[in-house]
Amino acid sequence: xxxxxxxxxxxxxxxxxxxxxxxxxxxxxxxxxxxxxxxxxxxxxxxxxxxxxxxxxxxxxxxxxxxxxxxxxxxxxxxxxxxxxxxxxxxxxxxxxxxxxxxxxxxxxxxxxxxxxxxxxxxxxxxxxxxxxxxxxxxxxxxxxxxxxxxxxxxxxxxxxxxxxxxxxxxxxxxxxxxxxxxxxxxxxxxxxxxxxxxxxxxxxxxxxxxxxxxxxxxxxxxxxxxxxxxxxxxxxxxxxxxxxxxxxxxxxxxxxxxxxxxxxxxxxxxxxxxxxxxxxxxxxxxxxxxxxxxxxxxxxxxxxxxxxxxxxxxxxxxxxxxxxxxxxxxxxxxxxxxxxxxxxxxxxxxxxxxxxxxxxxxxxxxxxxxxxxxxxxxxxxxxxxxxxxxxxxxxxxxxxxxxxxxxxxxxxxxxxxxxxxxxxxxxxxxxxxxxxxxxxxxxxxxxxxxxxxxxxxxxxxxxxx
Length: 466
Known about the structure:
This protein has 466 residues and is α+β, with helices and mostly antiparallel strands. The protein is built from 17 helices and eleven strands. α10 packs across α16 (426-436).
């Protein structure tokens, strides 16, 4: 989870802080989303934010690596690359050039649950962005020559970001062990063998299957008029015909079988330091109104690691000095099953085994003694503040809306989620720790550092999951 700045809530230690944060969230963040459904099934969500004459436009497709089949892993990401190769109207590279000439920026990203494309530019150029994006929704020009070149770029990206990065390798190996049958076991970028044998026909099949207005969500946030945005969407997207695409609810369920014992793996890779990751299978949010365990799990992550004074950092880094860094994280907003992570780097002279024992000790202590009301109140303020303050960014607002809409939840759940976080009790935090942080749901991965050659800086394990 993300930590909030330490200075933000030095004086917010009472329930008043929670009430104030909730009011701020409701008033500033969720007051004005407007939702429209075009005749072809495209969902449009518009939110006004008039602080600057800028607009964010994001188109989200409900197709990610979770929807791939064995043998074509990485195709969602490969198609994302190919989306910049042009249409009959727009030559390769011209999409981004036109956005840049308009003073904007554009990019795309592929996740386990979705693929998204975005533009940020002056509000007067929204029509340009929509026109370009709508054009490549149905008119993408895929050629064998372009694909052969681009798949080499994807393979090189895999080498640089995964194969040559020890923690990335560790993450990939751990996910393949932690999940027995669920598609989350496969890397988003794909296995190298699949990339080497991928063809333009695979990309065309993926594009034809998933890139349809009735499988997409258009999110527009900024200094805009919702009615005018709707008219633009009708103009640019309204003529695109829908295609048969299974809804999220209609897709075949992919349930991970229960784990029945601790899984362990050691990954040998050139690195300076050893590393430990403990991943526990945990539920994701399915119903924002009735579920309570995901909210308690997020608060549990906050109790363990929401700032420099939280339990893990205070005890293991400062007091015991067994770790140079330690982290707890959990994400309930996913289509598939989630995981609760504990991870860390042992201090000099300490081992990953000693760190694992200490982490287990902190969990046992929490289950035995529980969480005090004062501690939970403070963590609630920090956790909710982290959500609210990130929403100061229009881009982040669009990201939250798009993500929720593409995993089977609704943008309307945002307000509900913040309120539910407020009402988590200390006993619920203790209960989910006791229920889910158990050996039978645990996968332990250890990085065994090998002699190091000169390498680039390594991204954190937490960053690799998103």
